[in-house]
């Protein structure tokens, strides 16, 4: 395929504005520099890109928003396909299913579902791509009731290595449908997914912030509450140290803080009083410890959950770590505070835990390769190498936290939470990896998409073309 073929496939090269647009990522600390790139807005453009790569003998990589750009292997020598498929979100309210084109962000999906009184197991940011989040697990603020978000996927549309579109669902290619749900990628280029929705009449959501001096008592109270928390509630506790020149409200720039955020789901209007009562059972004792410097918790329509976590509103560089803990007992809490509390010297902007358990930990009999999170809590920490903060110092502190919490580290991770490809990670058993590899070998015998496989998600190393 010559220059005409490159033009028909929309392929761009370094120095071309179309190339720079295609390789743009949200995590500015991990900018990819593939050999060529294309932004695909139609299935035909995806097919043309795959055919071009196959004829040139170069591997194919895929991204949407680039939030996870640091969690993937380098793209040197590859063709990057940025998926921004047109068409918009289509909601079938009767079936409680939404069809989501690849490249669609959670803000669009949540808004479309909310118009029908429905919600979806979405990420914490409206800017994150829905498809990658879903197929990588997805630990949403509805997860203790709904499970990992990947379990809500009902069908996947993709273009495989032969350049042909196909559909994977329980009736058409159940083997591929099983593997692609959490199997770690490398099956082709996903162009759309169908995802299940659920009723949501009201959600009690928000975030409260306290001075970090109260971290010990707040963490202890939150841990006690988590022991018997209702499955309608998914919450997190974090130590937050935002830069003083942040555009966020002034109370959040007053120094290190402790934040508790999350969501309590009321599926029907009759459940609203219970959700409000459950939220008060958590927040009342925390507010009694100290008055929050800022408190946004309130009953609200479901779309507000996207604003509760205060994720960055624009691209930034960040470096972080993630792993699952089997418990968060008093000793684990003390170990965490020694390295991230007062006097710990932490350069991290965010460090803390998301409560799992409930449906997060229950395998889905109809699920795919990844159906549950193997841990009671997820640790997440990240910092920004800006304003005099050194990237090496951030990585060193991530290692320090990992060492401090090693006695409680399960060795498992959730792919959609991973922020660094070089950190230990595991989400499939050896038998599951071998089963997924067999599906990859069937749909991509020449290993065109081999480089797109998540680290530690393959047992077989095949030479790309």
Question: Can you put this structure into words, describing what you see?
Answer:
This protein is of the alpha+beta class and 465 residues long. The C terminus is likely disordered. The radius of gyration is 22 Å and the shape is globular. Helix 8 runs antiparallel to helix 9 and helix 11 packs antiparallel against helix 12. It contains 13 helices and 18 strands. The two termini are 16 Å apart. Strands 11, 12, 13, 14, 15, 16, 17 and 18 form an eight-stranded antiparallel β-sheet that branches. The protein is 27% helix and 21% strand.
Key attributes of the depicted protein:
13 helices; alpha+beta; disordered C terminus; 465 residues; 18 strands
Rounded mean pLDDT score: 94
Strand content: 15-25%
Task: Decide which structural class fits the backbone.
Answer: alpha+beta
Major beta-sheet overview: 8 strands, antiparallel
Radius of gyration of CA atoms, rounded to a whole number: 22 Å
What is the topological layout?
Elements: H1 3-9, H2 17-23, E1 36-40, H3 43-56, E2 60-63, E3 79-83, E4 90-92, E5 97-101, H4 106-114, E6 118-119, H5 130-135, H6 143-146, E7 153-159, E8 165-168, H7 174-180, E9 189-196, E10 198-199, E11 202-211, H8 215-226, E12 233-240, E13 257-266, H9 272-289, E14 294-295, E15 298-300, H10 305-308, E16 319-325, H11 330-340, E17 350-355, E18 377-383, H12 391-404, H13 430-443
Parallel strand pairs: 1-3, 2-3
Antiparallel strand pairs: 4-5, 5-9, 6-10, 7-8, 7-9, 11-13, 11-14, 11-15, 12-13, 12-17, 16-18, 17-18
Helix pairs in contact: 1-3, 7-13, 8-9, 8-11, 11-12
């Amino acid at each position: 395929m010559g220059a005409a073929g490159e033009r028909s496939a929309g392929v761009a090269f370094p120095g071309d504005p179309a190339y720079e647009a295609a390789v743009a990522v949200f995590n500015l600390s991990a900018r990819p520099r593939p050999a060529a790139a294309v932004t695909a807005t139609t299935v035909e453009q995806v097919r043309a890109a795959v055919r071009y790569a196959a004829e040139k003998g170069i591997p194919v990589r895929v991204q949407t928003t680039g939030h996870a750009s640091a969690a993937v292997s380098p793209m040197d020598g590859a063709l990057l396909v940025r998926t921004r498929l047109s068409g918009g979100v289509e909601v079938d309210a009767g079936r409680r299913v939404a069809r989501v084109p690849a490249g669609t962000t959670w803000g669009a999906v949540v808004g479309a579902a909310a118009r029908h009184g429905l919600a979806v197991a979405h990420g914490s940011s409206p800017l994150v791509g829905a498809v990658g989040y879903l197929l990588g697990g997805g630990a949403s603020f509805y997860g203790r009731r709904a499970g990992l978000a990947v379990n809500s996927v009902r069908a996947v549309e993709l273009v495989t290595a032969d350049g042909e579109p196909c559909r994977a669902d329980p009736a058409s290619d159940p083997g591929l449908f099983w593997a692609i749900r959490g199997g770690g990628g490398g099956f082709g280029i996903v162009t759309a997914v169908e995802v299940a929705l659920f009723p949501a009449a009201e959600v009690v959501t928000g975030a409260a912030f306290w001075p970090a001096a109260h971290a010990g008592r707040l963490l202890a109270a939150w841990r006690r509450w988590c022991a018997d928390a209702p499955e309608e509630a998914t919450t997190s506790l974090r130590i937050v140290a935002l830069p003083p020149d942040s555009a966020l409200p002034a109370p959040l720039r007053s120094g290190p803080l402790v934040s508790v955020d999350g969501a309590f789901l009321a599926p029907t209007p009759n459940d609203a009083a219970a959700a409000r009562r459950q939220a008060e059972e958590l927040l009342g004792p925390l507010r009694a410890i100290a008055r929050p410097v800022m408190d946004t918790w309130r009953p609200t329509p479901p779309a507000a959950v996207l604003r509760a976590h205060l994720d960055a509103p624009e691209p930034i560089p960040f470096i972080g770590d993630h792993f699952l803990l089997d418990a968060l007992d008093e000793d684990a809490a003390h170990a965490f505070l020694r390295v991230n509390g007062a006097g710990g010297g932490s350069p991290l902007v965010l460090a803390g835990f998301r409560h799992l358990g409930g449906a997060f930990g229950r395998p889905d009999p109809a699920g795919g390769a990844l159906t549950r999170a193997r841990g009671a809590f997820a640790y997440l920490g990240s910092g920004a190498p800006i304003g005099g903060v050194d990237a090496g110092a951030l990585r060193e502190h991530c290692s320090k936290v990992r060492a401090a919490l090693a006695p409680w580290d399960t060795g498992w991770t959730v792919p959609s939470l991973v922020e660094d490809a070089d950190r230990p990670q595991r989400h499939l058993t050896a038998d599951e990896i071998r089963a997924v590899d067999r599906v990859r070998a069937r749909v991509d015998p020449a290993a065109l998409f081999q480089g797109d496989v998540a680290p530690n998600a393959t047992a077989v190393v095949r030479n790309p073309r």
